[in-house]
């Protein structure tokens, strides 16, 4: 067995992911060059579309908000040695939780509706992740398999409910009625305008602040609490956890429930912040991108925020790029995102090995 690749912590959490992104963009540039377009021009258009205007930054951070929630969901499970692939289903159930609250009580003032709707999203997401955790502990069913299955179960359940139970009467689309204004989470441009500050309009809403607070909560929880220590112990060495008297089953179920709660928060951004109603496929693959975000961010909240902004740039900048350079289609942007995921995850060793070699030589020469 080969020895582990030793590199400084700062290089592991920053340098390696940055190099992985650079390599992915270089290969993507070759693809763009192959279709007869300029990679440099495409990169400039992408970055300018994402960060070149206040509106573009707003859209970038709006997309990043979803990735922060799903990245945190995957990361906290990682720390317990669990692989939660059910972010899509948990986010979908989070949307159902929001809808059930809003459809019943959106006649009440916002200070009743919004907190309860947020709790509804978290509770339904937590439940949908707790069940696979329970099944692994009690029945030996692996969470990778059950969380994948629960993605399909969530989608099927929501379709049934929208068509037969909670859907808008007479609507040709499977969706609920539009919620009352008391169930609308303010956009940031509305919140800033309240204080006399004008910023460009965009879908960016107060969910972004909630995402940052959730990131701070995960940092405190995982690295500064007894529960976080137990989670990390179970993830690093189940044998040591058992020897220390930590219940692996209990930690597994608690961690999966927290993971699902974070995934369910995606619905707060999409349903309460933007759509104003429950509709199909609002999660749009964010749950799966969250896996890449957690990998790139090394399961640390700061890294997750930075990786989420990167993917937000790809989403927003890619849209602008496809308008300005029609030969670079949205499918190619998805391919670029896939390359980033490939080099940040599956081919991480290709980047890590030469970086470790450089540091080894520097250490040897310094000695």
Structure, explained:
Helix content is about 75%, strand content about 0%. The protein has about 375 residues and is mainly alpha-helical. The protein has a domain at about 60-300: ABC transporter involved in vitamin B12 uptake, BtuC (Orthogonal Bundle), CATH 1.10.3470. Helix 5 (about 110-140) runs antiparallel to helix 12 (about 265-275) and helix 13 crosses helix 14. It is globular and about 70 Å long. The protein starts with 8 loop residues before the first helix and ends with a helix.
Cα-to-Cα separation, first versus last residue: 27 Å
For this structure, the CATH topology of the domain at 59-301 is ABC transporter involved in vitamin B12 uptake, BtuC
- Residues in helices, as a percent range: over 70%
Strand content: under 5%
- Global structural class: mainly alpha
Overall 3D shape: globular
Low-confidence stretches: none
Number of beta-strand segments: 0
How do the strands and helices of this protein lay out in sequence?
Blueprint: H1 9-34, H2 39-51, H3 54-79, H4 87-105, H5 110-139, H6 143-164, H7 188-194, H8 207-224, H9 226-236, H10 238-243, H11 248-264, H12 266-275, H13 286-296, H14 301-324, H15 330-346, H16 348-366
Helix pairs in contact: 1-2, 1-15, 1-16, 2-3, 2-14, 3-8, 3-11, 3-13, 3-14, 4-5, 4-6, 4-11, 4-12, 4-13, 5-6, 5-11, 5-12, 8-9, 8-14, 9-11, 13-14, 13-15, 14-15, 15-16
